[in-house]
Write a structure and sequence with these properties.
Structural class: alpha/beta
Order of helices and strands: HHEEHEEHHEHEEH
CATH topology: CBS-domain
Oligomer: single chain
Helix content: 40-55%
Strand order of the largest sheet: 1-7-6-5
Protein backbone atom coordinates (compact mmCIF):
# COMPACT_ATOMS: atom_id res chain seq x y z
CA UNK A 1 0.00 0.00 0.00
CA UNK A 2 1.30 3.46 -0.88
CA UNK A 3 2.32 5.76 1.94
CA UNK A 4 -0.08 8.70 1.85
CA UNK A 5 0.03 12.02 3.66
CA UNK A 6 -2.41 12.35 6.54
CA UNK A 7 -5.74 13.82 5.32
CA UNK A 8 -5.65 16.43 8.09
CA UNK A 9 -2.23 17.60 6.87
CA UNK A 10 -3.61 17.90 3.35
CA UNK A 11 -6.49 20.02 4.63
CA UNK A 12 -3.98 22.32 6.30
CA UNK A 13 -2.16 22.96 3.01
CA UNK A 14 -5.20 23.62 0.82
CA UNK A 15 -6.78 27.08 0.76
CA UNK A 16 -10.55 27.58 0.83
CA UNK A 17 -10.32 29.55 -2.41
CA UNK A 18 -8.85 26.52 -4.19
CA UNK A 19 -11.85 24.24 -3.71
CA UNK A 20 -14.91 26.44 -3.13
CA UNK A 21 -17.73 26.93 -5.63
CA UNK A 22 -17.54 30.42 -7.13
CA UNK A 23 -20.66 32.54 -7.10
CA UNK A 24 -23.55 32.67 -4.66
CA UNK A 25 -27.22 31.95 -5.10
CA UNK A 26 -29.11 34.34 -2.87
CA UNK A 27 -32.59 35.55 -2.02
CA UNK A 28 -34.03 38.40 0.00
CA UNK A 29 -35.04 37.88 3.61
CA UNK A 30 -38.75 38.19 2.77
CA UNK A 31 -38.72 35.67 -0.11
CA UNK A 32 -41.29 32.87 0.37
CA UNK A 33 -39.57 29.61 1.22
CA UNK A 34 -41.28 27.90 -1.73
CA UNK A 35 -39.35 30.26 -4.06
CA UNK A 36 -36.09 29.44 -2.28
CA UNK A 37 -36.85 25.72 -2.62
CA UNK A 38 -37.39 26.30 -6.34
CA UNK A 39 -33.96 27.91 -6.67
CA UNK A 40 -32.39 24.94 -4.88
CA UNK A 41 -34.17 22.46 -7.11
CA UNK A 42 -33.39 24.27 -10.38
CA UNK A 43 -29.71 24.71 -9.56
CA UNK A 44 -29.29 21.42 -7.66
CA UNK A 45 -27.77 23.08 -4.58
CA UNK A 46 -28.28 22.49 -0.87
CA UNK A 47 -28.12 26.07 0.37
CA UNK A 48 -29.13 29.62 -0.58
CA UNK A 49 -27.72 32.73 1.07
CA UNK A 50 -30.27 35.17 2.53
CA UNK A 51 -29.53 38.89 2.20
CA UNK A 52 -31.43 41.92 3.43
CA UNK A 53 -31.83 43.09 -0.17
CA UNK A 54 -29.80 46.26 0.35
CA UNK A 55 -26.39 44.60 0.28
CA UNK A 56 -24.70 41.34 -0.61
CA UNK A 57 -23.84 40.65 3.04
CA UNK A 58 -25.50 37.46 4.28
CA UNK A 59 -27.99 37.57 7.13
CA UNK A 60 -28.75 33.84 7.00
CA UNK A 61 -28.42 30.64 5.02
CA UNK A 62 -31.39 28.47 4.08
CA UNK A 63 -30.36 24.84 3.80
CA UNK A 64 -32.18 21.92 2.27
CA UNK A 65 -32.92 20.69 5.79
CA UNK A 66 -34.57 24.03 6.60
CA UNK A 67 -36.89 23.48 3.62
CA UNK A 68 -37.69 19.95 4.79
CA UNK A 69 -38.43 21.15 8.34
CA UNK A 70 -40.78 23.84 7.04
CA UNK A 71 -42.49 21.30 4.79
CA UNK A 72 -43.20 19.07 7.78
CA UNK A 73 -44.58 22.00 9.77
CA UNK A 74 -47.03 22.88 7.02
CA UNK A 75 -46.18 26.58 7.26
CA UNK A 76 -44.88 28.97 4.58
CA UNK A 77 -42.16 30.99 6.33
CA UNK A 78 -40.01 33.62 4.72
CA UNK A 79 -36.45 32.76 3.83
CA UNK A 80 -35.10 34.51 6.93
CA UNK A 81 -37.65 32.83 9.22
CA UNK A 82 -36.66 29.42 7.85
CA UNK A 83 -32.91 30.03 7.88
CA UNK A 84 -31.77 27.93 10.82
CA UNK A 85 -28.18 28.00 9.56
CA UNK A 86 -26.15 30.96 10.73
CA UNK A 87 -24.21 32.78 8.01
CA UNK A 88 -20.70 31.69 8.95
CA UNK A 89 -17.90 32.61 6.61
CA UNK A 90 -14.30 31.85 5.73
CA UNK A 91 -11.76 33.79 3.73
CA UNK A 92 -10.45 32.53 0.40
CA UNK A 93 -6.98 32.52 1.98
CA UNK A 94 -7.87 30.43 5.05
CA UNK A 95 -6.83 26.81 5.27
CA UNK A 96 -9.41 24.16 4.51
CA UNK A 97 -8.59 22.63 7.90
CA UNK A 98 -9.73 25.82 9.67
CA UNK A 99 -12.91 25.95 7.57
CA UNK A 100 -13.65 22.30 8.37
CA UNK A 101 -13.10 22.99 12.06
CA UNK A 102 -15.53 25.93 11.92
CA UNK A 103 -18.17 23.76 10.21
CA UNK A 104 -17.75 20.99 12.76
CA UNK A 105 -17.89 23.35 15.75
CA UNK A 106 -21.11 24.99 14.53
CA UNK A 107 -22.78 21.97 12.95
CA UNK A 108 -23.16 23.59 9.52
CA UNK A 109 -22.55 22.17 6.07
CA UNK A 110 -21.93 25.41 4.16
CA UNK A 111 -19.75 28.47 4.63
CA UNK A 112 -20.00 31.73 2.74
CA UNK A 113 -16.56 32.40 1.27
CA UNK A 114 -15.32 35.99 1.35
CA UNK A 115 -12.62 37.50 -0.80
CA UNK A 116 -9.44 37.82 1.26
CA UNK A 117 -8.92 41.43 0.12
CA UNK A 118 -12.37 42.99 -0.11
CA UNK A 119 -14.34 40.85 2.35
CA UNK A 120 -17.13 40.54 -0.22
CA UNK A 121 -18.91 37.17 -0.58
CA UNK A 122 -17.52 35.33 -3.62
CA UNK A 123 -18.58 31.71 -3.22
CA UNK A 124 -19.69 28.80 -1.10
CA UNK A 125 -17.73 26.00 0.54
CA UNK A 126 -19.65 22.84 1.35
CA UNK A 127 -18.80 19.75 3.32
CA UNK A 128 -18.69 17.84 0.02
CA UNK A 129 -15.92 20.16 -1.19
CA UNK A 130 -13.93 19.26 1.91
CA UNK A 131 -14.72 15.56 1.52
CA UNK A 132 -13.33 15.65 -2.04
CA UNK A 133 -10.00 17.01 -0.81
CA UNK A 134 -9.97 14.65 2.19
CA UNK A 135 -10.53 11.67 -0.13
CA UNK A 136 -7.55 12.71 -2.22
Amino acid sequence: MANRTSPSLELGHVRVGDCMHRGILSCTADAPLSEVAGVMARHRVHAVVVTNGESTQPVGVVSDLDVVAAGVSGEEPTALQAAATEPLSASTSESLQRAAQLMAEHGVSHLVVRDASSGEPVGILSTLDIAAVYAG
